[in-house]
Amino acid sequence: MYEKIGIVTNIWAQRMDQGDSFIDLVQQFGQNGFTQFEVRDGDYLRQSIFGDLLEKLKDVMENYNTEEWEEICRSIWQSTEKKEFVGEHQLLFQQFGDFAAKVFPFRLSYAISHPWRSQPEDLSADNNFIEQAKRLSYLFCPQSPRLRLVDLTSPISVDFETAKININRYLNLLPPTIFAVENAVQPATDLIKLIESTSAYLTYDEANSYQPDGSVKDDLSVFWGRIQMEDLTSVHFKQKTTNGVLTELEDGWVDLRSIMRKLNQSNYQGDLLIENTPSNDPLTDAINSRRYLLDCLD
C-alpha cells in the first residue's frame, strides 16, 4: 500500500498557472518518491503545453480503430517502432513518446468531470466523449489503463437505474479500461449498490462527505461496514476544516488516522492519492502530507 502513494495532478494548478512544466513536475515528484499520478483534466492542464499536446492527440484519435490505437500506445511505452499506419501523425506520437520516456516507470491514470448519474441528452456524443477519455487513459498506461469519472452536476440523489445503465454502457465502450466513479456531491454509501451490481470500481474521498459547516452527509460507519476492499481502486486524501480544503494533510474534520488503519487492517491493494488545495509549493505540501499519512499507523 505504501509504495502506491501518489498525487492528483490538480494540486499543481497554481504552479502550472505560473508556467511550470507538467512533465517537469511529474519528474520532480517522481524523484521524491511519488509513483502514482492521476492526471486530472481541467483548465490548468488544457492551457499548458502538455495539455495542448493531449488536445492534438484527441483530434487525431478518430483516424485509428481501437486495435491500432492500442498498438500505438503499447509501442510508445515499449519504445518500439511505430507501425506504418501512424503516417502523418508520427511527430505527435513521438512527442508523447518523449514524455513517456521521461516519466517511466511511474503509473499514470486519467480523471474527468462527467455527469455519469444523469440521462445524457445526446447518447452518441456521450459515447464519443467517454471513448475519447478511455483512449487517453490507455495512452497514459497501456498495461493497466484507468479512467475515473467525477459527477459534480447531477442531483445529489442517485437515480440507480439511470446510473447503472450509463456505467454498463461506458464499460462496454472500447478500449477496455479499469473504470472508476468517485463519491463527489452524493454520499458514498449510495454508490455501493451500483459498484456491487456492475464491474465499475469506487474511488473514495471521505472529505467529500463533509459539508462547509463540518456536518457529514453520509453515514461513515455504514460505508466502512459495507464496502469491500476489492471494490476500491483508489482512495483520495484531503483535509477539511472551517477554512475549506487545506494545502497539506493534518488533523481536521476527516479522521485520516482511522481511514489509514482501516485500509491497512483490511489489506487494501489500491493506491493512495493526495489531493491538497493547490499552493505555491505543492511538493513540500505533498511530502509533509505523505509523512502525516505514514505517521497515522504509528
Brief summary:
By secondary structure, the chain is α/β, with parallel strands linked by helices.
Features:
298 residues, alpha/beta, TIM Barrel, two-stranded antiparallel ribbon
Total count of strands: 10
The CATH class designation is Alpha Beta
Class derived from helix and strand content? alpha/beta
The string of secondary-structure elements, in order, is EHHEHHHHEHEHEHEHEEEHEH
Radius of gyration (Å): 19 Å
- Give the terminus-to-terminus CA distance: 15 Å
Residue ranges: pLDDT <50 for 5 or more in a row?
none
For the record, the CATH architecture stands as Alpha-Beta Barrel
Instruction: Indicate the percent of residues in helices.
Output: 40-55%
How would a crystallographer describe the biggest sheet? 8 strands, parallel, barrel
For the residues shown, what is the average pLDDT? 96
Count of separate structural domains: 1
CATH superfamily: Divalent-metal-dependent TIM barrel enzymes
Count of helical regions: 12
* Strand neighbour order, sheet with most strands: 1-2-3-4-5-6-7-10
What portion of residues belong to β-strands?
15-25%
Shape: globular
Query: Which fold name fills CATH's third level, the topology?
Result: TIM Barrel
Architecture blueprint of SSEs:
Layout: E1 5-8, H1 13-17, H2 22-31, E2 36-40, H3 43-46, H4 49-60, H5 66-78, H6 90-103, E3 107-113, H7 123-140, E4 146-150, H8 160-172, E5 178-182, H9 189-197, E6 201-205, H10 220-226, E7 232-237, E8 240-241, E9 244-245, H11 256-265, E10 271-274, H12 282-295
Parallel strand pairs: 1-2, 1-10, 2-3, 3-4, 4-5, 5-6, 6-7, 7-10
Antiparallel strand pairs: 8-9
Helix pairs in contact: 5-7
